Automatic annotation (TrEMBL):
<protein>
    <recommendedName>
        <fullName>Ribosomal protein 63, mitochondrial</fullName>
    </recommendedName>
</protein>
<dbReference type="Pfam" id="PF14978">
    <property type="entry name" value="MRP-63"/>
</dbReference>
<dbReference type="InterPro" id="IPR016576">
    <property type="entry name" value="Ribosomal_mL63"/>
</dbReference>
Length: 104
């Protein structure tokens, strides 16, 4: 009986089975290789489009000016910018802590 158990028992690592020096590893399957290959093909296609852009640098020069981006950004900065900060008082900072006035 002990010989049967010794021969048929699957050897498990000591401690946590997915961490450490003697951990269990997931076997690489054909599906994993296929998914990796597809992922790399998509990445290669993306890199191709990044390397060969639709417009040349000469054609893309000044496109933001033609769309009016600089003027939009200037208007947004002018409207949101404040020249001074508002006065901060202790009551305004700690006003949310006040529930009621008296201890009656």
């Amino acid at each position: 009986m002990r010989l049967f158990v010794a021969l048929c028992k699957k050897r498990m690592p000591n401690g946590h089975i997915y961490r450490g020096k003697h951990r269990l590893y997931k076997e690489v399957t054909k599906d994993d290789l296929r998914n990796l290959r597809e992922h790399l093909e998509v990445e290669e296609k993306n890199m191709f489009y990044l390397r060969h852009s639709y417009l040349t640098p000469e054609q893309s020069f000044g496109h933001a000016r033609a769309l009016g981006k600089r003027e939009e950004n200037r208007i947004k900065i002018v409207t949101t910018r404040k020249d001074y900060y508002e006065h901060v008082k202790l009551e305004s900072r700690l006003g949310h802590l006040r529930v009621n006035e008296g201890w009656d």
